[in-house]
Task: inverse folding
């Protein structure tokens, strides 16, 4: 039983609701494949050519007829060469061999390849000598890769909704495709609120802090392929925020901010959004990051993240990134974070009711096995903890205690980006 606190929504429920509420907003564009890394594919890619395109050799060696092997003199004449892109012309004569390179087409009539390490070649490379034990153990079709063995013509090699990785682009290039239909970048306007904030590079007044959250948001958004407009720092003033948001909502798909969404006197973002549009979700059963707002102004999605920097990063990676990739048409199965079972190298006790993520890193213990250790503090104001961490430990809503040696779920930060 999850034991959720009243008035809060679990992360999984919040994402499911958001996926249902938020339509695919990004338009489609044709882009050179070299510019598609990290983009969301908006078409199925169907194979127009088989891979490999011909039967070819998996090794450097000599192509032979398997039926000859039992009667071959161990000295075999070499009648030609087959190189990648330059196949041997004609049919392999009986009792002969063709020198063949890896990836080169198998000559007509040949049906096995003996690797070059298992033969001796005369000085002018016209005759090879094959050991009898090699002849005896050479199997028909040995070291041959068949046409279409990897991809057959008509196969769907990539599905629409794929977030394109280097290997995905490579398989597209292998089909001879120079362009792909992908989602256009979402237009996201980003700003921070808080009268205590100063811009990096400016003098810091008494009691002030430098704005770091805006740069975390910009980095996360660009990492998932969004086009970002930086609106800078906005004062905790109703009229200032109302004018800025009303203007930005007209030519952006998403507005995203940190701070101003809690319940303090200076937290005016929520009433501003309610004045201009509507709040569709608020307060998640997560830690860090409970005061997380989703709303809309016209057709523009509004996301309000908490003010603490760790909350911004954690809720950004676990909620905002999947939601915005959904809005670009991404396959939901690809949006699930990687979760690895590991042993805890720490003890921890807490109140239940919210899903919590501890900043963590993997280390080797004295036995050589990897275990997760947690950062010394759970404060969501300690940004340095996210620099120290290489992952997060996920504690379910009903988990109140972790003991050293327990199995816990570890989420690599790289898998969330």
Result:
């Amino acid at each position: 039983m999850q034991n959720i606190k009243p008035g809060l929504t679990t992360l999984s429920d919040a994402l499911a609701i958001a996926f249902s509420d938020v339509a695919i907003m990004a338009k489609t564009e044709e882009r050179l494949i070299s510019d598609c890394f990290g983009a969301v594919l908006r078409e199925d890619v169907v194979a127009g050519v088989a891979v490999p395109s011909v039967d070819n050799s998996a090794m450097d060696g000599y192509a032979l007829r398997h039926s000859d092997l039992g009667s071959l003199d161990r000295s075999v004449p070499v009648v030609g060469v087959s190189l990648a892109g330059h196949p041997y012309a004609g049919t392999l004569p009986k009792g002969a061999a063709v020198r063949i390179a890896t990836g080169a087409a198998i000559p007509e009539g040949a049906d096995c390849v003996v690797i070059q390490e298992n033969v001796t070649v005369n000085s002018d490379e016209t005759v090879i000598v094959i050991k009898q034990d090699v002849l005896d153990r050479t199997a028909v079709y040995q070291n041959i890769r068949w046409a279409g063995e990897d991809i057959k013509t008509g196969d769907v090699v990539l599905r629409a909704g794929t977030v394109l990785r280097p290997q995905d682009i490579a398989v597209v290039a292998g089909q001879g495709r120079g362009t792909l239909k992908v989602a256009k970048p979402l237009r996201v306007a980003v700003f921070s609120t808080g009268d205590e904030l100063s811009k990096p590079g400016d003098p810091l007044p008494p009691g002030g802090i430098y704005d770091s959250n805006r740069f975390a948001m910009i980095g996360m958004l660009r990492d998932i392929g969004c086009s970002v407009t930086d609106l800078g720092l906005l004062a905790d003033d109703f009229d200032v925020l109302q004018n800025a948001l009303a203007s930005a909502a007209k030519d952006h798909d998403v507005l995203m901010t940190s701070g101003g969404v809690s319940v303090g006197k200076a937290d005016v973002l929520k009433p501003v959004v309610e004045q201009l549009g509507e709040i569709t979700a608020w307060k998640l059963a997560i830690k860090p990051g409970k005061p997380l707002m989703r709303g809309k102004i016209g057709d523009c999605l509004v996301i309000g993240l908490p003010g603490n920097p760790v909350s911004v990063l954690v809720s950004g990676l676990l909620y905002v990134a999947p939601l915005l990739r959904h809005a670009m048409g991404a396959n939901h199965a690809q949006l699930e974070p990687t979760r690895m079972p590991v042993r805890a190298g720490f003890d921890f006790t807490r109140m239940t009711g919210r899903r919590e993520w501890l900043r963590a890193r993997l280390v080797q213990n004295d036995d050589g096995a990897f275990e997760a250790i947690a950062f010394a503090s759970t404060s969501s104001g300690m940004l340095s903890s996210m620099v120290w961490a290489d992952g997060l430990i996920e504690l379910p809503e009903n988990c109140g205690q972790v003991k050293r040696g327990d199995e816990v779920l570890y989420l690599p930060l790289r898998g969330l980006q």
